[in-house]
Amino acid sequence: MSPGVQTRSYGQRARNAKNPAAKTLLDTMERKKTNLAVSVDVTKSEDLLAIIDAVGPYVCLIKTHIDIVEDFDSTLIAKLQNLERKHDFIYFEDRKFADIGNTVALQYSSGVYKIASWSHITNAHVVPGPSIIKGLASIGLPLGRGLLLLAEMSTAGSLATGSYTEAAVELARQNQDFVIGFIAQRRMEGLGAGPEEASDEDFLILTPGIGLESQGDSMGQQYRTPRTAVLESGSDIIIVGRGIYGSDPKAIDAISGKARRYMEEGWKAYVERLV
Amino acid sequence: MSPGVQTRSYGQRARNAKNPAAKTLLDTMERKKTNLAVSVDVTKSEDLLAIIDAVGPYVCLIKTHIDIVEDFDSTLIAKLQNLERKHDFIYFEDRKFADIGNTVALQYSSGVYKIASWSHITNAHVVPGPSIIKGLASIGLPLGRGLLLLAEMSTAGSLATGSYTEAAVELARQNQDFVIGFIAQRRMEGLGAGPEEASDEDFLILTPGIGLESQGDSMGQQYRTPRTAVLESGSDIIIVGRGIYGSDPKAIDAISGKARRYMEEGWKAYVERLV
User: Fold this and answer.
1) B90 — phi, psi (to 5°)?
2) Distance (Å, rounded) from C-alpha A269 to C-alpha A66?
3) Cα–Cα dist B27/B29, whole Å
4) Which residues participate in substrate binding (chains A, B) (predicted)?
5) Residues in chain A within 8 Å Cβ distance of B125
6) Which of A33, A99, A114, A134 is the catalytic position?
């Protein structure tokens, strides 16, 4: 592992970032003192906007699944962008692209959602091989977008392990202008590489499956705490979903309070690891 | 490998099918004498409908990427269903689901596209592990839908090989009520299993990357002929895209002619392998 990535501040890392979306994200984290991303998985526009407005002050990143919103129309994008300006965060559409190059280029740029036009960051599986990165980069690079790769998954029985994870890191290494990091449970710099190759690697590590209490759900999701993820595993950004917005999107005060608490826990762990 | 699956007729296999979507598909293949699926990857509704209408008489299955259609609205689904009734085929939305169980259940049932409501078959990557099948089955099984798993990909440098492919087959084996087969380049029955376990396995093998001439594109896609796929590799359904509809969706006669030619090539190879 490249020594010390996780002991450098987000601000320092922003100055060395090779990709504009990564730089913006790291600058935002430093400025707002938050490494919290909220994953807002609701099916109504009204709830999506209300939750984002409630957690906005506490996050660096909002993770969306735009394709589960039942009443989506093109005006929703403008409303999302208004909240981005109001609260100073960026978007990560969690599309998990997973097709061949030509197809993902169309899925990313076109269709109803036009993801590349508004989402600063998106992500992809590496199972199709290099063509998926080539296809997405053909759309995203000219727009200053960044890509995360799924190097690991937090579900029970995930196949993103071992040589699969190493292949993901190698693809990232070969595409550092566009690939800014990983959805993963631990740091990835230098994985599968010689020490000279990995010396200036700096990947953002975004970790889902975070809860204030460790537990699981009936669909195989497993949870870890912010402290475990950031301090012990070197995660840069913790991703929290229902742990923050629960089951009532109208409970704004409770949602804000939870977001603030996760933000504080995540930041405290980050400050501790800098020492 | 379970001996003889590829020497049984589609009609015989329909009678033993454990899943209603698989049964409908196999019955359709036998009745229309076609093992051709056309993948229609265009961004305008008008072109999508025109191409489907042109190839409809020659296919058992239409493969869609509904999320690349720029002018999608809910009336498009009714128009697609009209063509389904007119030409007697079923739909396969090539969504390549690749997320955790809770998320794929929402992506499959909800959002703008409501894929489960109209697409008889969809597909998923197995990289998240068993939860993805559980999540999709919670929506698809009550509707009589079927799922294909990506056991292999036709792109250069695909990571769906070796133990990954074996894990996909094992997940299919454990979920034969819902998983009807694979996107793959060869037969999968019995892969990684003992002979007794695999004795009554029958998976549909759908093979993309088919062209009348072997060639490739600039994004890493590789092509094989209908004869190679069906006769040598035991593919059940050949998936053809631009090889049929080219670059001019208005050239209806040319598109129909190409579809007929692929249908004939695919069927000839199938009849030959029955002997």
Assistant:
1) -125, 170
2) 31
3) 5
4) 41, 63, 154, 221, 241-242
5) 98, 125, 127
6) A99
Q: Is B209 helix (H, G, I), strand (E, B) or coil?
A: coil
B202 classed as catalytic: no
Chain A residues closer than 8 Å to B154 by CB: 100
- Measure B275 CA to nearest chain A CA, in Å: 35
* ipTM score assigned to the predicted complex: 0.93
Find out whether A34 and A59 touch, Cβ atoms under 8 Å. yes
Contacts with A41 from chain B: Cβ below 8 Å: 102-103, 106
Does this model's pTM top 0.90? My answer is: yes
Whether B55 and B67 have beta carbons less than 8 Å apart is answered as no
Q: What is the pLDDT of residue A200?
A: 80
The fold of A10-274 is: TIM Barrel (3.20.20)
User: Does B260 have pLDDT greater than 80?
Assistant: yes
Sign of the Cα pseudo-torsion (A37, A42, A43, A47, in order): negative
- As a whole number of angstroms, the distance between CA B87 and CA B77 comes to 16
Q: Which residue does chain A place closest to B155, by CA atoms?
A: A128
Give A145 to chain B, closest Cα distance, Å: 19
Closest residue of A to B125, CA-based?
A: A98
User: Can you read off the two tokens belonging to residue B140?
Assistant: 């698809």
pLDDT value at position A223?
78
Sign of CA dihedral B125, B130, B132, B134: positive
Distance, in Å, from the CA atom of A112 to the CA atom of B74, rounded to the nearest integer, reads: 12
Nearest chain B Cα to A242, which residue? Answer: B102
Can you read off the two tokens belonging to residue A155?
């579900």
Dump pLDDT digits (tens) for B104-134. Answer: 999 999 999 999 999 999 999 999 999 999 9
* Cβ atoms A146, A21 nearer than 8 A: yes
Contacts of A17 (CB under 8 A, 6+ apart): A23, A26, A180, A202
**Catalytic (active site) residue B217:** no
Residue numbers in A near B164 (CB within 8 A): 127, 159, 164
DSSP chain A: --TTGGGS-HHHHHHH-SSHHHHHHHHHHHHHT--EEEEE--S-HHHHHHHHHHHGGG-SEEEE-GGG-TT--THHHHHHHHHHHHHT-EEEEEEEE-S-HHHHHHHHHSTTT-GGGT-SEEEE-STT-THHHHHHHHHHGGGT-EEEEES--SBTT-S--HHHHHHHHHHHHTTTTTEEEEE-SS--TTTTS-TTTTTT---EEEE--B-SS--B-TTSBB-B-HHIIIIIS--SEEEESHHHHTT-TT-HHHHHHHHHHHHHHHHHHHHHHH-
**Known catalytic residue: B96?**
yes
- Residue tagged active-site, from A23, A94, A236, A258: A94
Nearest by CB to A219, from B126, B134, B164: name it. Answer: B134
CA dist., res. A166 & res. B128, Å (int): 17
| pLDDT at position B187 over 90 | yes
Distance between CA B26 and CA B17 in Å, rounded? 9
